[in-house]
Design goal:
Mean pLDDT: 93
Shape: globular
Number of helices: 10
Number of strands: 12
Length: 286
């Protein structure tokens, strides 16, 4: 017998379906899930599309947070005035696949796929984002830095009866800037070999806080904690020079055909991304 397909129109209906199914699979934009189903990489006896749940389709700002609903497409995010100030996120979204895919794909799906080279998820990680997860048992908020099972790819802390209902991004404050850089063999529709996302806060030209994500270097997205600590108190040139001359050991590169290449280019990529974040601060201050 084939899988059953449901398209609930309310959150309550979707949560009940999830809780009563043996092996449920949520279908959102479907750009990853449908392909993985076809290839046999994932299985589900109950397919639940959440695309018709209207409350998941909004972008709003409240109490210092920007909330992106679970079914909001990347294309809709790219046209949102609330997100336009995040230059790093804009660049990450522009790198994601093709325009046709971006009209279907969602940021929530990009996060839940848990691939080590996911453009939008990598930048959202650097922005200090969290996700809301909901089941019939209740709701919890999980920082992206705690969302992934770091020992293996395509694995998260989500329970099978949970829905990622929204993504929470701390609003950009005065003196903050963001940057994103990715390296790949081709410019279009190619999986990145190195990805770096940066969010900086500065005061009088000196870094007071930093958030860094490193993608496509390990089984999951990596939090650049040691680099963050090192550049606190530095100005733009000092931070650039430090990143350019220090390999971020927290990356813990896994062995692959591209290991030596990544080892060679990661420091300069991180330095350039820090430079982009400083540039976005300057542009906001004009």
């Amino acid at each position: 017998m084939g899988a059953l397909f449901f398209r609930p129109e309310t959150e309550e209906e979707a949560l009940k379906l999830l809780s009563s199914s043996e092996n449920p699979l949520i279908i959102n934009g479907g750009t990853d899930a449908v392909l993985f189903l076809k290839e046999g990489k994932i299985k589900g006896d109950t397919l639940i599309s959440i695309a018709s749940i209207k409350e998941y389709g909004n972008i709003k700002e409240k109490d210092g947070w920007i909330e992106i609903g679970g079914t909001v497409t990347v294309d809709k995010m790219m046209s949102s005035p609330l997100l336009s100030e995040f230059s790093g996120l804009t660049e990450a979204m522009e790198h994601m696949a093709s325009p046709a895919i971006r009209r279907m794909a969602t940021a929530a799906g990009n996060i839940c796929t848990a691939a080590p080279a996911a453009d939008v998820a990598a930048m959202l990680y650097a922005l200090g984002s969290s996700v809301k997860l909901k089941s019939i048992r209740g709701e919890r908020i999980v920082p992206l830095s705690s969302f992934y099972n770091t020992k293996r790819s395509y694995s998260t802390v989500m329970e099978k009866d949970e829905i990622l209902t929204s993504i929470l991004i701390p609003s950009l404050q005065k003196g903050e800037g963001t940057g994103y850089t990715r390296l790949s063999r081709r410019k279009s529709q190619d999986i990145a070999k190195v990805m770096v996302g940066v969010r900086l806060k500065t005061e009088k030209g000196l870094i007071t806080s930093a958030s860094i994500s490193l993608g496509a270097v390990n089984a999951q997205l990596v939090h650049g904690t040691e680099t963050e600590k090192a550049i606190i108190g530095m100005n733009e040139k000092e931070a650039y020079d430090y990143a350019f001359t220090h390999f971020p050991e927290e990356a813990q590169l896994h062995e692959s055909y591209y290991t030596e290449y990544k080892k060679a280019v990661l420091p300069s990529t991180l330095a350039e991304t820090i430079k982009k974040a400083f540039l976005s601060i300057k542009e906001e201050e004009r």
